[in-house]
Write a structure and sequence with these properties.
Chains A, B: One of its GO terms (molecular function) is kinase activity. Chains A, B: Pfam families: Cytidylate_kin2. 2 copies of one chain form a homodimer. By secondary structure, chain A is an alpha/beta fold. Chain A has one domain: P-loop containing nucleotide triphosphate hydrolases (Rossmann fold, 3-Layer(aba) Sandwich), CATH 3.40.50. Chain A is built from 9 helices and 5 strands; from the N terminus they run βαβααααβαβααβα. A 5-stranded parallel sheet of chain A has the order 2-3-1-4-5, with helices on both faces. In chain A, helix 1 packs across helix 9, helix 2 crosses helix 5 and helix 7 crosses helix 8. Chain A is globular and about 40 Å long. The N and C termini of chain A lie close together (11 Å).
């Protein structure tokens, strides 16, 4: 059964909402902030340390320097020489693997597609949308001015891309990293969830 | 109505076959090599000159040099200072615009998504597939050894990427260039055509 779904998404594209709707339609768990809290509990870190891990990586060079290149080579030796961010990533990855092992679920963000790349039964989805749609959505949900929203979208997407590119050595938003990529504003949030559900059914019936 | 569908595809991914099936399901024309011949007739060029235009661009730097950077700035002055390849591209683009104006259709390759980027009612699709699936497909269809097929896939995909990146100033295979991107081997050729058809219906019913 191919029923572990990871969703990567541009900020404001509705990716999180699509993931939630999909999980509801399939009757399976949805992991987003819950995942952060789970990770926090498992590792003994404070939850607030985790919350911005994915979004704060706004400069790829500085991020790489801060994280220490090739730090993962030390993973098997325990946490020696790993930065706090690396340790958070490893703890999150551990949780992602555990929830995926438990059974079908939807996981949003946190490089889950890359963390689970060798796990059978995983389907990776990318959601993007027209910039005007994203600006409108974030202005409405967060009650911010257009200028503030544009700044926030650029900052958060840059952070997500750097976080993904650093941890995965792949390119965020490259079609080949995902089984299915969708432009959400063109068909709507609900239809995206239906579209992903159809793809899962096609994969399971193949 | 959103019924002009462009399909970009990795070599061997089944993108052309998916496009043909989709056109049949929708009862609309399908343009691939026919497009080349149409372009040849319209421009007065010999058809054979056109046939390899998309696939031969195997080195991006050499390609850019050969094509002459910023050559398009001269488009309005007629064909002065344009290379043969530029003239072929412009003639093809002209045909793509004309067939899209005529009505619903499926167009495979030739940067059609970029050529039609300001045309309302266009849906852009990208098809990719696992490398083993592609190798097997090409070995079977062209009766070649695995080594020859791998070489051909690398060469043709590099050519398609360079052709697209040069003409569009965008990145081939970036999810954000396409409304819908699909991994074809995971659900099968038929299901891909159905999946695209559903996306079109969702877009038209929105």
């Amino acid at each position: 059964m191919k029923n572990v779904i990871t969703i990567s998404r541009q900020y404001g594209s509705g990716g999180r909402e699509i993931g939630k709707k999909l999980a509801d339609k399939l009757g399976i768990p949805f992991y987003d902030n819950e995942l952060i809290n789970l990770a926090a509990k498992e590792s003994g870190f404070c939850a607030s340390v985790f919350e911005n891990a994915e979004n704060k990586a706004t400069n790829s060079l500085l991020y790489s320097i801060a994280m220490g290149m090739n730090a993962y080579g030390n993973q098997e030796l325990g946490f020696t020489n790993l930065s706090l961010d690396d340790r958070i990533y490893l703890a999150q990855s551990d949780v992602i693997r555990k929830v995926a092992q438990k059974g079908p679920c939807v996981i949003v963000g946190r490089c889950a597609d890359y963390v689970l790349k060798d796990t059978p039964g995983v389907i990776n989805v990318f959601i993007w949308a027209d910039i005007d749609f994203r600006i409108k959505r974030v202005m409405e949900s967060d009650n911010l001015t257009e200028a503030k929203v544009i700044e926030r979208i650029q900052k958060i997407d840059k952070g997500r891309a750097n976080y993904y590119n650093y941890h995965s050595s792949e390119k965020w938003g490259r079609a080949e990293n995902y089984h299915l990529s969708l432009r959400s504003d063109f068909i709507g949030i609900d239809s995206c969830a239906d579209c992903i559900k159809s793809y899962i059914e096609y994969a399971n019936n193949k």
